[in-house]
Every structure is written in structure tokens, then in C-alpha cells.
Amino acid sequence: MPSIAGAGGGRLFSVNGAASYCRRRLILLQRPLFSSLAGGSGSGDDATPHLPVVIVGAGPVGLVLSFLLTKFGIKCAVLEKNVEFTRHPRAHFINNRTMEIFRKLDGLAGDIERSQPPVDLWRKFLYCTSLSGSILGSVDHMKQEGSPISVAHFSQHKLVGLLLKKLGGIGFQTCLPDEIGSSTRDLVLENKILMGHECSSIQLTDNGILIGASFNEAGRMQERKILCGFLLGADGARSTVRELAGIHMKGQRDLQKLVSVHFRSKDLGKYLSRERPGMLFFIFNPDAIGVLVAHDLEHGEFVLQIPFYPPQQMFEDFSTKVCEEIIVKLVGWEPSDVQVLDIKPWVMHAEVAEKYISCDNRIILVGDAAHRFPPAGGFGMNTGVQDAHNLAWKLCLLQNGVASPSILQTYESERRPVAIFNTELSVENFKAAMSIPAALGLDPTVANSVHQVINSSLGSVIPRNMQKSVLEGLFSIGRAQVSEYILNEKNPLGSLRLARLRSILDEGKSLQLQFPAEDLGFRYELGALVAEDCAETTYEAEKQKHSKRSREYIPSAKAGSRLPHMLMRALSTSNEGVFSTLDLVSGDKPEFALIIAPLKESYELARAMLKIADELKLPVKICVIWPQGSVDAKVKGSRSELAPWTNYVDVEEVPRAPVNSWWEMCQITSKSVILVRPDEHIAWRTESDRVRDADSEVRRVFSKVMSK
To answer: Boundaries of each FAD-binding domain copy (predicted)?
Structure first.
């Protein structure tokens, strides 16, 4: 825990970690709210390298942030405390919304689709007594709703590899400490991922954040000073940046403790590919219980999750030999080539940071540093990537002088409610997963209660080894509930339990993988947008609607919503190809898009939008959506209506039954005009014939969106 001391003009927060080579500290001085983005050293040392942005953490979220910022023209560097990237698969499910974002990262989504395992090898969750034993039930989770691209199953370490290639393509380099040296004079850090550099101190100065980055050079710990305008903490669930900034997490802790066993077996992969392919295998038998994640059946890469109960069961008890024995018990036969690669303990939490922004808007938390979810539903990495997508364009417009510094507060007001909602949803999904063992007579709450009783009544009386024997003996009796003697159709109790399990699966009340209503239909209530004055649009109403477990995505053009997808075709060009409405928004620059129908009042509003945007030096494009079958003679009218402006595009709807038009799908009329932000969320919606003074209305809208 941080210790706090200080007097007069400053406060000192320090954290002493056993694994750290140096004393971490955060000095918060009383400074003006906002000075310059990053200029000068602020410390009297002109040799201190300085950058607009430094990102801490080179996981998927940090790398996506660095890619987006670089594409938008913001110089940045990344600090990563490890000297090499982990080979542990970790996260593996990429939802629709994240894949939509990846489509615009120089074709990253396409690379993932080509590299991931075939869909038929991972579309199902299976519930079984062993990987070669009875199948108790299965669920096919593949469905496609409202998106131009499907979900993906692609391990995190492979995703990091692809992101590094994309970053290399725009000039990024990965550097070890000995490749940089200890001198800071004339050091160029922009477009670099500094491996083996841990953020060890942070000081707020007149000109930004002065970072101390500790690194090991030739066996000696040294510290490199870097000045930046903004420090983005993307350094994971145990974030150093969050700790240094003194930001606390709120929510549920210690939901479950597990051991994660990363192993390879091509024998097992071939067997499952042939006999019972799936992504997740929930295995219950009298000898062992576990969840197997099949990251790649073709290459035989797996992660086994095993619950454990300290202090009676300790992580040290799970040796390679013990883990191999558990694998054999869960498989039902002994693969000849099991290779245990890594064994890690981890604790499941459901928490969100009390705030995302600190130190005069200079320190910002992103991804797992800001929220920790149970893995049920795969919300963690996906929510983090979408955090990055929300933040990048705002930082760019702030640096370019278009937006006010307070636009950064809209990052928190938009993304934190989403994280809170996703936390609740992931806990709900985790409880749904626990309903299956409970239906089979293996209620996890009973196991937790037994563990608590042993801790409270026996902990101070008998030795740990004896406590362990008592606990494992009781668990063994519990696992007998899934023996073949009980769990079969001829046994009345077993038949009743199997019927209950089938009912849970058939009614969609088990662990779910896809949440289209939440992944695509989440909506910002307050932030960089013009909120709609309608009680039914509040975030609480959205939560109540989704709490009914309706997973259907309903397209919406309300302010704060993601732009609904429909296929379009460009007019007045020789290109006959189709594309998504999401592609009307540029991925290469922070450009707004105003979507209109070819109506007189809408063109008038579009001209005002282009004029005011030009004054503000804000990129805006007009997108005119024409009905299917529109003739060239009519389409050419946009040229005269929007002259002298040329940054517009005419597109034709390509609707699919039962929808007749994009406007109908969005449940609005063609009189509507929709301003879409660079992150593909709707900033403002109105009907053009309701606007009396177009110039004043546009200025009001931009003032609200830019937080001015």
C-alpha cells in the first residue's frame, strides 16, 4: 500500500515492491490545470527526451494505442517492463466491435481471419466427463448480427505478433536497453518500444509528466528520464501506473483462484479435431475438474484452468508432474507428447478503477489497468481495445488545438460506464457458467463454503497438510456426484440432473460467448456528443433492457450509438464493389462524417458543417446516401448543392430483406442528419427541417463535441 507523507506544496506517494529494483514514487506538485503538451524538460535539463505521449505496456491495448496515435500523427513511445513478449496465449476471443476496429488497422482483421483456426474447430463449447468420455451437452455459439465482420478466435500472443508487424510497417522499432544505451543526450525515442523498461517514478512538472524508467544494463539497474505530455497506463491488471497515481479499484475481489497450465499436445489436438472440436471444454469427473481452452487444435496448443483453494492447496503443489497427471485424468487417456510450457496462478476479480484520469488530465488508464473482469465472455481485451479507439482521436484533436483539454474527461464519462456494465455482465456470465456444475451436483458455492469453514474452524488448530487432506477428501466425495454410477439416465437422480443441464443449455442460460446487443449496441449517454433529451435513452434504461438477457442487436442511430452497418456502393465511380457504412468513416485520420439523404434542407446543413469545420480546421466529410437504383443524373446534384466543397461522397444503399433502406433500419426518416465521430459513434442527430439557423446549430454542436 502507498505511504503518504508531505507538507506544504506537495504530496509524496511511494510504493515499495519486493520485485522492484528501485523505489517507485509519485510526486504530485500543485501546478496549473493545463500548460503545454510537451515542451522543454521542465527540470532544467535540455537533454531529457520529451514526447507528446508515452504508453506504458506493450500488450494488445498499448500496441493498438501506439498504432492509432502514430497514424494520427502523434509522436509516442512505449515502455514495456519485460525484455521479451510472452508466449502464453492469454486472451483469445475477439468480438465483432473489436474486429471492426481491426479492419482499419491496415487490414489487421483480414490477417487474423487468415491466420486463425477454421471456424468449425472452435464454434462450440462442450460439457463432458472427460475429453474421450460422455458428452453431457454442447452449445454452438456462432452467429452473425449487424456487423460487416465476424468474431475471431486468435490467441493474444499471436495478435501481439501481428500488431508488431503493423507497427514495423509505419516505422516502429523494438529496442532492448543495450541497443539504446544509458545516455539520454540526443536520444530519439519516438516510434520505439523500449523493452526491459519499467515505469518506476512519475513527477508532474510545469511542462508535463517526468517519467523515471528503470532498466538493467550490464547487470546494473539504471533510470532513464523521459518527459511527456501524457502518460497512458496500459500496463495490465496489476498496473504500476495506476498504483503510482494512487487510483483505487472498486468492485468484487477474489471471485475464484485458479492455476493456468499452458501445454502442447499435437496428439490431443488431432484427436479433438477429428472427434469433438470445440473452443472450451468443461470437464467433470470423479478424479478431476477443469476447463480446457483449445487455443489452436491444429497445432495442439491448450490452456487448462484448474480451481484451487489456498492455503490448504498452494500454487507450489502444482508441479509439472502433477499438472501432467491432471491432464491425463481430464483427457481420459494419456497423450504421448504432452509438453507443459508454463504454470501460472491467477485470481479472478471484477473491478473498475474509481477514475480513469489523474494528475491534471496527464495520466490516463486504459484497458486492464482501468478494469478487471472475469474471463467469461471475453470482455477484457475487447473493452481495452475499444478504450484505445475512444481515446486516440480525442488526444489527436487536443494536440492539434481543435479540442479543449476537458475532452479527455469525456473518455472517462463514456468508457467507465461501459466497463461497469461489462463487469456486471461478465459476473452474470460467470455465474451462468457455474450453473452447469451446480446442476450436476457440484455446486461451487458449497465448495467455497466448505473451504471457508475449514479456514475459520481448523486453520489455527491443525497443520496445513492435515487441512489439505480434509479439504481434498471432502472435494473427492463431492466429485463422486459426477461418477458414471450416478450420472446416467437409468439413475433417477442422474436423469434429473442431466435433464436440468439440457434445459440450461437449450434456454441459453449457460456461459455465453457472443453478446451482440452489448458488443454492438452499447451507447454513450454523456460525453463528446450532443445528448438526446429522452428518458428512455439513459444508460440505466439500457442496463435494464439488457438485464432481461435479450441478446438481439437492434440498430440505433441515437446519439452515442455505434453507427449501424449496412452495405453501400459508391456512385459516380467505376468501382462496383460494396462496403460498410462504417467505412464512410476514415481510419487514417480523425475525420468526422455527416450522413445525409439528398434533400434540400440536408444539403444546406451540410454546407454549413463544411464551412464551420474549415474554420475550425476540423476534418469533415459529407456522405450522401441515395436509395437503391438512383440514376447518375440525380446523383450529380450533390456537386452543385455542395459546391465549392469537394470532400463528399455519394453512395447507394444495398439493403437486404426484410429492410428496405438504411433509414428504415435505423428507425428514422430520411430527413435525419447524423454526425459520426472518428470512432464510428454518433455525436449528434437531428432532422434537417427542424434547424432554423444552420451556422449557429453547427457551432453549438462542435462546441459540445469538442468540449469547448
So the answer is: 51-419
